[in-house]
Amino acid sequence: MIIPVYKPKGLTSFEVVRRVRRELNLKKIGHSGTLDPLAEGLLILLTGSETKSMTGFLKLDKEYLATLRLGVVSKSHDLETELVERASSVEDITSDRIDEVLRKFTGKIEQVPPDFSATWVNGKRAYKLARKGVKPDLKPKLVTVDEIRAEKIALPMIQLRIVCSSGTYVRSLARDIGEELGCGAVLTDLVRTRIGSYKIEEAVRIEELRLRYVA
Q1: Do 149 and 205 have their domain in common?
Q2: What average pLDDT score do residues 116-126 get?
Q3: Which terminus of the chain has a smaller tally of CB atoms within 10 A, N or C?
Q4: pLDDT by residue (tens digit) across 36-94?
Q5: Is 115 noted as a catalytic residue in this protein?
Q6: What is the mean pLDDT of the chain?
Q7: What CATH number corresponds to the domain at position 185?
Q8: How many domains does the chain have?
Q9: CA–CA distance from 26 to each of 31, 96, 114, 169 (Å)?
Q10: Catalytic member of 36, 78, 115, 176
Q11: One domain for residues 154 and 93
Q12: Are residues 78 and 180 in the same domain?
């Protein structure tokens, strides 16, 4: 069975899997790509024999609606860690300048994963090292950004629509866009709106699972 679930903010992807397993009394279940605890949106769960399709689902492209705050930075590139002011004002940044910078992040690009990520570093998760104050030795990875455009600009906030390959870190995009603009940036909100052909409109809330999947 393929279950498109709406992951709320505040839960890890594993916690969503655990709750769905309990709600539907399932034994074999997994997810096809994590969402950070502070992110929300579409999470596809596979159960039973469908778990064999996991690799294929992991390779599907993703679409996100991301909100960035300019002028500040943080160690996690989002709101998980303390914000530090990088620029006292960003009001002089024009929409043309933002569009110019976004074009630099379209196509095949190299990006370094966030220190606070689940990337493996010498047998340990990067975020576990980062939380201990150890700087993980993270290497750049090649990812593809098919589309990135500004949906709304209300400085210091900008909202972006992003279509990208699996393995792309939107927090890294926020960090790198902020650096390119010269003012810094953090990710304040992230909603995954699509995985392959599956859209967020199809996602079921955890509290509604029994109504849809239990006869």
Answers
A1: no
A2: 84
A3: C
A4: 899 999 999 988 888 777 778 888 999 999 999 999 999 999 999 999 999 888 999 99
A5: no
A6: 92
A7: 3.30.2350.10
A8: 2
A9: 13, 51, 33, 30
A10: 36
A11: yes
A12: yes
